[in-house]
Amino acid sequence: MTVPRPFTPADTSARHWRFLLLFALANAGGTIGYLPLFTVFLPMKVEAVAGVDRLNLFTLVALIGTLAAIGANLGFGWLSDRSVARGDGRRRWLLLGIVSLALSYALFARATSPLGVLLAVVAVQCAANAVLAPLLALMADEIPDAQKGFTGGLLALANPIGAATAWALVKLPGLSETGRLCLLSLAIALLIVPLAFSTARRLPTHAPSIPRVVARRNLAVAWIARLLLQSAGNGLTLYLYYYFADLPPRQAAIDAADFVSRTLVLAYLLPLPCTLLLGRLSDRIGRRKPFLLGAAAVTAGGLAVMALAATRPVAVAGFLVYGVGAQVFMALHGAFWMQELPSERHRGRDLGILNLTNTLPALIGTAVAWLAAMPGSFAPLLFLLSGLTFAGGLVMLMVREPAPAGQG
């Protein structure tokens, strides 16, 4: 049984910042549990298994894997709530996720048929959510509201770490697929274990700053906005490998994977200063809405540039603009959502509902992309995704935030 340590003002010391860093690194570990798979390893595996039928198999695997992720995230969130209610905490679920991810990637490495690939991806999705569902609930449990914006910025470390991991694994010479996936499992464990063995903390309770009915309405509006942006993002990410691979000059599979991995590293590193700065600024002024509106507009603009691009440099520039806007929006949206949660007893479950805006969009974005995208003709899809993103920003106009209060 883990006894939570009360959070005190002294926790603004180095010990507190160490905890935030451990949390950000563990989130990166959960992210690399699935990001390299979908951006690099799965497209390559599908191309080897299915050949010219790659898009159909890739889409089918992604859709079924997403359904598994939805159920797993809700289930593990609920189970971690039950663990908290019993006084056991959520950290043991992180250890279960580490072991499950290692076994799932071993299954993926051995897959040589479409069915084998499908079953392995379902296993990876379930294992990754055994980490991510309890992990985000820990943020709501143990990090004060006045620091959630900055913490959201720190969580943006996950994507560049994930992209850099994928790139490094592709570039390492002399490694088989099995060797690369073994190293990936080791990296996941090294990032998550320190937080899993850290001491739990307990925040003081406080009265809500706005009426519960307003908070629920804000959550509903914010859920729809994030659903729209994430649908666009999933549609883009799912076919990003093929989008860049089809730009002239045509590349071999390993060269295309290398290019996409390097581009993702840059696109995920560039937003980091923005997410940290704007996250901290939103903490200080007590407002998230203006930043969310601006980030949605920037994201939509980047997608429009990608739609118009005829060369790789212009396409990369558009993707970088998209990356900055999307990362800022997701970081601050997560902080906003956690502040509005109606019940301390059901944070894992309620964050599972938020996670539907990460998993349902994979179904929506995949379906839209499957209908609108064709090899060599991604512009209609990208314009459609830009429109979805802009609509998500407009929806956030309906959010009602309380008057800013003095926060340090």
Q: What are the key terms here?
A:
408 residues; mainly alpha; two-stranded parallel sheet; 16 helices
If you had to describe this structure to a student in words, what would you say it looks like?
With 408 residues, the chain is an all-alpha fold. It has one domain: Growth Hormone, Chain: A, CATH 1.20.1250.20. The chain contains 16 helices and 2 strands. It has a two-stranded parallel ribbon with strand order 1-2.
Give the proportion of residues in helices.
over 70%
Main pleated sheet: 2 strands, parallel
Taken from the alpha-carbon principal axes, the silhouette is: globular
Question: Number of helix segments?
Answer: 16
The termini sit apart by 34 Å
Relevant CATH superfamily: MFS general substrate transporter like domains
The stretches of 5 or more residues where confidence is low (pLDDT under 50) are none
Q: Helix- and strand-based class?
A: mainly alpha
Average of the residue pLDDT scores: 82
CATH topology: Growth Hormone, Chain: A
Number of separate strands: 2
At CATH's second level, what is the architecture?
Answer: Up-down Bundle
Q: How much of the polypeptide forms β-strand, as a percent range?
A: under 5%
Give the topology string: H per helix, E per strand.
Answer: EHHHHHHHHEHHHHHHHH
